[in-house]
Amino acid sequence: MRHYIMYTYVIQGERFVKVMDFQKGRIIHASVTEWEEGRLYAELAMDLEGFKGKIAAGHFDYSPPKTNK
């Protein structure tokens, strides 16, 4: 597996995944919709498939720290 899920986040009801591709040294931003529609390259889709349940459950969700103002 060459991809590492950094975190996921939700914008206006749509979940996005931020993934590090260590082999090519790049960060990939993709929506779960793109993934489900088959618009991601095969290797990334296969790597994400193993974490599908955790992604849907919000295991990797990022929420910004709360600040006291």
Automatic annotation (TrEMBL):
Top-level taxon in the UniProt lineage: Bacteria
Name this protein carries in UniProt: Uncharacterized protein
Source organism of this protein record: Metabacillus flavus
